[in-house]
Amino acid sequence: MTDKKQLRIALAGISHETNTYCQGQTPKADFYTLRGAKMLASAGQESDVGGAVDACVSQGFEPVPVLFASTQPSGTIAREAYEEFKEEILTGLTAAAPLDGCVLLLHGAGVVDGIEDLEGDLAQAVREVLGDIPITATFDLHGNATQFMADQLNGIFVCRQYPHIDLHLRAADAVAAILDMLERGVNATCHLLSLPILLPTTTTFEGVGEATLADLLDLQARTPCVDLSWFHGFPYTDVAHVGSSVVATCYPEQLEQAQVAIASFAQQLWDGREQFRARSLDAQQALAEAQQCDSFPVVIHETSDNCGGGSPGDGTHLLRAMLDAGLGNEACFAFLVDAETATQAHKAGVGSSIAIRLGGKTDQLHGEPVETTAYVKALHDGRLIMQHMFRGAPINIGPMARLVIDDMDVVVSSRRSQTFDREPFLAVGIDVHRYKYVTLKSSNHFRAGFQHLASQIVTADTPGLTTHQIEIFPRQKTKRRLWPIDSQASYP
C-alpha cells in the first residue's frame, strides 16, 4: 500500500481558450497568475485549481504549487508570453523534485504564435523533465485535442458539464488517478478518436447535450477503464486539429474494451450530428419570441458576443433592438463591456445625466456605438464573488455603472467577461425577478445561475465572433472536410 503522506503532487498549468479570429495577439500582461500560496489559497473554490488542492489535502498528499496562468478567451498567445510561462513551470518542477506525480491544469484550445497545440507542447516538455511518474491533466470540454498531447499524459479528465460546474470534481479525479497508478505500479495511457465535427456551443443542461452526456456516463459505467471523456471542441479556432474528440484513459488490460467504447461513442456522435444544429435568431426575432411568452422573467442571451469565447462584449446589436422596441422598465441588460463609458459614469457620479457613446468600440462586426443620454443610477467597483459556476472564486470586471437609458436598466463593466450569474445585477441594485426581460451576454455558462429562475431562455445570435453561424469563419489550417460547413465531410 502506498504511503499517501509521503506523496508530493505538483500542480501547474497554462489555460487559454484561443479564438484565432480575434484581432491581435494575447500578451503576457493579459494573464493573471497564481503561484505558491495563492494557488493553495484556491482551496474551497469550485475551480480546477481549487479542486486539485482540495483533493490533494483530502487524500493526505502534499500539493506542490508551481504556476497557473490564465486569462479571458482572446487571440493567439504571443510566443514570448508562452515561452516565459513554460520555462517557469519547467524550472519550478525541476526545483520541486522529488515528485510522485503531476496534475496539469489546462484548457485544450490553446494556440501560440507558431505552436498550434499548446497543450501538447507543454505536456511534452513536462514529460521530459519529470520522466515516468504519473502525469494527469484536466481540461475544458471546449478543447481541440490531439493524440500527440494524449501520448504525453497518463490521464485526461475533461469537464463533463456546460456550464462547467464540475471542473473541481474533474481535478479531484485527476488526483485520484495518480494514487491509483502508484498503488498499481503501472501507468495508464490515453487513446483519442478525432471527429470532423464543429459543434456549436451546446449546453449539457438540456436537450441533445444532456442526453449525449448521459449516454457517455452510461457507457463509462459499463466499460473497464479509468475514464471516458468527450471534447466538444472549439470551432472559433483555425488549427489543423479543430473538431470534436473522444478519449479513453485506461490500463493495458483495459485497452481493447476502451477502444471499442470510444469508437462506439464517436460513431454515435457522428450519426446524431444533425441534432446539434443550432437555431440562429437575429435580435428582432429573439425579442419577438421573448415577447410571446406569458410568464416571466424571460432570459435573452446574446450568444454571439460572448467574451467567454473571445468576443469583445461591447456589441450593440441586441441592445439597439431592445431600445428600438421600447421595452423600457420591463427590461434590464447586464452587461456591456465599455471601460470608457464606465469611467465617464464614475466621474459624473450617481444622479448625473451623461451623453454617451456606448459599446461598438472594438470593430464594425459587433455594431456601432449607441449615442444617447443616460442617467447614472448606481456605481460599483466590479469586485464580485461567483455564486454558481466557479462558486467561491473572486472575479473582477472593473468599475461598473448602472445606467438608465429610455427607462431601461443597462449595466456597463470595464473588463471583459461573460455574465455567469446574478451578481453583476445585484451589485448595482437590480433584482432580476422584477423584470419581464433579463438580457445578458453568454453562450451557456449563465445557465448555472439563471436556468432555475427563467420561465424561458431565448438565444439571440447577432453578428459576432462567437456566432452559431460558424461557416463564416475561413479555414486555412485544416485539410479535413468538416461538418456542418462541408456537406462532403465523412466519418470514419
CATH topology of the largest domain: Rossmann fold
Mean pLDDT: 97
> What is the global morphology?
globular
**Total of domains:** 2
Question: Which architecture of the largest domain does the CATH hierarchy give at level 2?
Answer: 3-Layer(aba) Sandwich
Name the beta content range: 15-25%
What radius of gyration results from the CA coordinates? 23 Å
* Low-confidence sequence ranges: none
Give the % helix.
25-40%
Give the total of beta strands.
Answer: 19
| Euclidean distance between termini CA atoms | 43 Å
Please give the CATH class of the largest domain: Alpha Beta
In short:
With 492 residues, this protein is an alpha/beta fold.
Structure in words:
- The structure is a single chain.
- Helix content is 28%, strand content 22%.
- The chain contains 13 helices and 19 strands.
- Strand 14 (383-385) and strand 15 form a beta hairpin.
- Helix 2 crosses helix 6 (167-184).
- The longest helix is centred in the N-terminal third of the chain and has 18 residues, at 79-96.
- The model has no long low-confidence stretch (mean pLDDT 97).
